[in-house]
Amino acid sequence: MKGYSKKYLPLLLGLACALGVLLGAALDFSNYTSSSLLSTNKKKEKLARLIDYIEYEYVDEVNMDSIVDVTVNGILTDLDPHSVYIPQAEYANLSESMKGDFVGIGVSFYNVNDTIAVIQTLEGGPSEKVGIQGGDRILYANGQPLFNKQISNDSITEHLKGEENTKVVLKIYRKGVPELLEFNVNRGKVPLKSVDAAYMLTDELGYIKINRFAESTYKEFREKLILLKKQGAKQIALDLRDNPGGYLAEATQIVDEFLDDNKLILLTKNKKGAIEKTFSTKDGIFEKGELYVLINENSASASEIVAGALQDNDKGTIVGRRSYGKGLVQREMALGDGSAVRLTIARYYTPTGRSIQKPYDHGNEEYFKDYLNRYKNGELVNADNISVDDSLKYTTPGGRTVYGGGGIIPDIFVPKDTNFEKESLNLMLRMGYMDRFIFETLENNRSYYNSLSFEDFRNTAIVDESILQQFREFTRRENFQIKVSQYKPVLKRYLKATMAQQLFGSNAFEQIVNEEDPMIEKVIELSKEK
């Protein structure tokens, strides 16, 4: 549900534990001598004593929560770019986003003119089941008015969320219906989909897009893979573009569906030199089919595990641009007060033994500038500009040359359109900037749009010149100036995709937005050569 709070509220409780974990790394005290434990305790005592001095003796009042926040973040920043502190207030939302579901009524909404307007019900959620629709206005929840007042999204969420299997009575205004509608909604688990789309690109080529690797990702993926096979898919395009990663186990299970029995998927190595290896099993359901994996500069971590494992096992073709380059493994560790740290505990290596972690020895600021550096050196538009280190050259069993040292280099390169206007349009699309405009457009004639099937919608030139003009006026009101004359067809497609999202869901969105996508077109071309 939109509108979750992401404000930080760090707490002092559990600091001693945090410092012990971070500085002592004493995750298993049985491995340490009494003298090493004493040394570690002295370090903890030193920092704890400093905090006490500041709290009780410093001349001015200070926010101790902020002191702790700065201390913990400062420690982690000096370790590596991916060891991070998760404050208590943020932890619940982050955990929820990776669980694969949350408890609520299952709507996304806007606060329009001090009224809660439903954008769409979430597929499989309680609101969809009782018949709530996009465009409905939620006026009351259990008799509590939710309109004509200054009410934050967080407060709205508190009224609509609750314990599983509890009821909330909603009174709703629906345009064209004279009386308020009443719905008894039984709060329940609402799926947070990590598989955005699964459909057939051609008669034999299926397409699956994964946006992150959450707890439910493998289950979602397998269901979609089985469905596509039933529809005739003999080839699969697995889209991992802009996928930042997530749970390692979900990634390895997905790889397992494509590999023969007992193939090495990855290995991890910690600071003590302990190596853990993960192998495929005999249960894969797409071991014989042709595979294409789509990656770009924002495909990271678990996405790179998938691409690297398949590439090193000579399974399929990697298409796109060099991936992000994150080869560090984090473990989430609770700090006792509802906050946590994600601490790097190992490095992972692809089956050929290569590390794909890009360097971070010049500090975090330089590390996170990597995209800008790739842009400046021309790597995003020309594969010849990708810098490789011959000392990190590896060879797969099938004789393919691959490189370590920073990301997965694709087998087939597809350049990025770096035109500023095109980039701005894509940013507007992916960041949801077009959503409110499309919501207003649908509101003007919702009965017509709701009457369309997806096939009718897809085959209709739904975004005409008048809608484009309205969008230009909308961007001017929002102080977002952009010239789109040469990219008018792209803008029309993006607006239509956004409309498809609100009317039909993410699967429809991806089908529209992928039309004329250069990377998709390249995969279709390659598939026809097989």
Automatic annotation (TrEMBL):
InterPro entries reported for this sequence: ClpP/crotonase-like_dom_sf, PDZ, PDZ_sf, Peptidase_S41A, Tail-specific_protease
Stored SMART domains: PDZ, TSPc
A Pfam family annotated for this UniProt entry: PDZ_2
CDD domains for the chain: cpPDZ_CPP-like, Peptidase_S41_CPP
Protein name per UniProt: S41 family peptidase
Record keyword Transmembrane helix present: no
Protein family per UniProt: Belongs to the peptidase S41A family.
Source organism superkingdom: Bacteria
Record domain PDZ: where: 91-161
SUPFAM superfamilies assigned: ClpP/crotonase (SSF52096), PDZ domain-like (SSF50156)
Alphabetic keyword roster: Hydrolase, Protease, Serine protease
Record has Disulfide bond as a keyword: no
